[in-house]
Amino acid sequence: MCTWLRPWFSQTSTGTSSLICETAFKCPDITNSFVVCLSKRTVGTAMSAKTTTSEYLLLFRNTGWHKELSPEEIQQNMARFTAWFERLNNDGRFKGGGPLGHYGKILGARNVVMDGPFAETKEAIAGFFLIQADSLEQAVEIAKGCPGLEFGQTVEVRAIVPEPHELEIARKKMSEQQAKSAVSSS
User: What is the maximum span of the chain, computed from C-alpha positions, in angstroms?
Assistant: First the structure.
């Protein structure tokens, strides 16, 4: 790996994942969008509460893990992280992802734009992976292999779901309202 290049990971148009080295000042060429990556999942019927997914988001937190390390130690740990990524990719687990910039903008109500994020360094999101796993437990086991855990990074594991949980709640409330309405009209 080249010295002081930042690794970016993306999925190519042929469906294979690749490691792209770009300097910290260039944006990666990500050829597939987030939505395309979500296309392989099993969805139950509309009224079914049981849906399964085989895709999981790994959120890597702590943008300051490297602060107490020498340049050589940083490079060694980035090489370990890249080797972990390559194992996931070779096993067919990696679907997309990459590092995130440390600064951005936050859009709030009434389109108010603020500088941010303002999270503590240890809680700031450093990057993400989309992976394929058979269960949440298997995704957690995969995340346990992250070399950054040894240096204070944390990994949040979240299932990619076919719809927001709020829609399920709305359907339940609507059903309850219809039941009350049927009882009161009889």
Answer: 77
